[in-house]
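The freezer alarm interrupted the setup, so I double-checked each line after restarting. Inputs confirmed:
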Amino acid sequence: MDTLLIALSVMLGGGVLSILSGPRPRLATWLGAGGSLVGCLIGLAPVVDSIVYSRSSTFHRPWSVPYGSLWLTLDPLSAWFALPILVLSGVAAVYGATYLMEHRGERSLGFSWLMYNVLTASMLAVVLSRNGILFLVAWEVMSISSYFLVVFDDEDAQVIEAGRTYLIATHLGTAFLFAFFAILGQGAGSLDFDAIAAASPKLAAGTASVLFVLAVIGFGTKAGFMPMHVWLPEAHPAAPSHVSAVMSGVMVKTGIYGIIRTLTLLPAGPAWWGWLLVGIGVLSGVWGILFAATQQDIKRLLAYSTVENIGIIALGLGIGLVGVSGNMPSVAVLGFSGALLHVLNHALFKGMLFLGAGALVHATGTRQIDRLGGLAKTMPLLSGLFVLGAVAICGLPPLNGFAGEFLIYLGAFRGHMESGNLYAVPSAVVVGALALIGGLAALTFAKVIGIVFLGSPRTEDAVNAHAPGLGLTGPMAVLGLLCVAVGLGSPRIAEVLAPVAAGVAKLAPDRVVPATAEVAPALTSVVTVSGLLLVLVASLYGLRALLFRNREVATSTTWGCGYQGGTPRIQYTGSSFVEPLGTFFAGVFRERRSIVPSTGLFPAPGSYSSEMPDVATELIYRPAFRGVGRVADLMRWIQNGQTHLYILYVALTLIVLLVWYLGLVMPT
Amino acid sequence: MNVSSFLPPLLALTLAPLLLGVTNRTKALFAGRAGAPLLQAYHDLWKLLRKGTVYSNVTTWVFRAGPVVGLGAMLAAIALVPLGGCRSPISFEGDLLLLAYLLGLARLFTVLAALDTGSPFEGMGASREVFFSALAEPALLLGLVAVSRETGSISLSGINQAISLHVWGHSGLVLGLVAVVLMIVFLAENSRIPVDDPNTHLELTMIHEVMVLDHGGPDLAFILYGAALKLWMLGSLIVGLVIPFHFGIPALDLTVAVAGMIALAVALGVIESTMARLRMMRVPELLIGAVTLAGLALVLEHGGVVS
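Predicted 3D structure, all chains:
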């Protein structure tokens, strides 16, 4: 634990020194990014130690805040969430060092680095806190520091708007968490997590369910569950890319952490808890990827894909809960293990893809997919990393994405086989949903790679693009290598992960071993076939090279059915690629099309544009906020700008409080 | 793992192209033609392997990786597929998921290679391929969910060995529905009528053929062989499900299973000769129909109709 506190101090120290370095951007970058990187590296040691040897350590000091205590514990579950936070924050800091230098002189880099390091430290504090007050403080610091990072580009009105949406959404979520902790603390008489956990068997079933729902809404808002996700596709694209990577890759996972930690604090719940999370998982997963598929802006696309991946994690948690309440320990362990593994996996590949999107913007100056094309020729490394990331995020073997989804699938198959209808139905739903999500993810990322990197350049932006330097692609490559390593090392990782999952499922000690025993062997077989696949692909490359020896390999134009006058404009675009999907799901999308046809004998230029507004924003939030606005308008007469009236309000409030207080203390 | 487990992949590797010949011969019979020789696919593969190739100057390394990764994934997947009661060389709980996702990997690289040419035709084919397969995937896996409950196994080999007259006797309705679902997936995933016509070239209605327009020589051979293996793999799932008995003698069981595969190839020829291709926007409805049938199988499984 001491090492981890040192790591936190190095991060925060680096941030503070960075802002103190004032107008010297290079020094600020060195201090800020360096502090983050060094802090993350130092922190890795205790975190990995805790996961591998399943050790816990604690730092506990009293605190003068009522009900508060400075109580930090690193247990394997916290460590499992701290791991991606450290890895991705460290890597993204290196990337950010190059990325932000472009903006030197325009804005204070020191402030951005301070907020970045505060964000990293507060995310760590969230997963380490063992006291409700401390947790909420860390949670707020995390939300506010990330808000300042989102509005880095504060001259852009859209960015400010995105930041405001984020700020409102995150505080709506926090409001539910206040209620959550208040009820939880009332039952236990303390806000320390161990006291809450000790008191949890006494919790009434109804209260536990209320607490569960509050946690799902409060934490789910941060995680990006549909329909609480609306801030996510606004805020992630607006932030600088290394911040998007951290927010999307790990910050939203603190919401998942919150839900998992809640499960360890509450007694085992009824069947509908599992149904609820499966339902949320289907909604987030399928809608997330449908909206991702139809986005034009690559960073918005990636943000919606985060909603999808959070949905996959929710499906895993749902299967875990199905296993818990259906008394199927191996199903519970498979579901929770899959969800936990996907937390790490998503941090790695989504982090990499967001960094990649930043490198693309850096290289081409646009985020519009349809304006690009043919970049694989000028940027072979970046395109290779994107292909790697796509294979990983589509959950395809041999990379890490498959390992996590495989465990969830296996849990769902098991859950369906072993149980009655109450649990078999959500299990089958999970299988169907994962299959659909997987197929649509392949569609989405085939579009990204096919339209951005392959074919011919569609516009001047793509023609004039210059390959990003090693400062941007290097950090991506590190994450790419980790995707491969986690994919091939998944059996070993599952061995340490399964006991953590068993802890979340609160299995009795004698049931832990049989329930966790099969997780790693299943993945070992998967890795065997993955190894076979790699050997086969390598051999086929060899065979191909052998066949082409002394043969004519010529180059010509693409076959155009005899017509060779084509231009890059006749290529399929991203919009045309997803057109069948858009037409088929027209009922879901509420797409707005505006078509100006070119008619007449001497046709004027026609035009076509389409827009895909978020259904949740359109149907839920906009009307809701309009209502709030109307009520606020009605209340405006209270705020009339006259100071003496304000003083009257204060006096009246004090009198009311006094009467209330006296009435309570001295009952007559 | 015993020696007989190496027979299913061996048969797949050698006999897969034969199925194409059988189907084409059946179609020729229906059309009153003599048809190409039964072993035409082997001749084609041999011819292509000895040729050079022409690459489009638009393409990159992705285009060259497409056929290699595609065939590699198919070959790895073959190691998971049992036949006639013989286990596959590699079988484990959940191998059916790996099979589905290896096919997905092959598909992604085929699609990317198609988009790499910048040709609008190939973009069109790629777009349809990813959309239709996204709908076929839930049908396939939900069908397998139903079968895994009936047979008590989540492994292709386990399912194959557990299929018996007894299982068919008490849950024939579920298995029958799943067989129909698998047949639709088989037609869609292998780009056959009514989803796609493997014999048309340069028409705006095709999917798989249009994606490989720019491939030639050994690359095309890899693709054709991979497609034949895919046909065999998905076909052997159906054959394994509908042949409800095993003699316990590997040689005899495998002969029956291969006969079943040939019968399936004939059936495919009959379907392709007697049906018209669907309009493109009708294809999703067919696939959603398959998902619905799989859902119906699951309902029957739980609704007390089948105990």
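Quick read of the result. Strands of chain A lie at 57-62, 69-74, 553-556, 592-596, 607-611.
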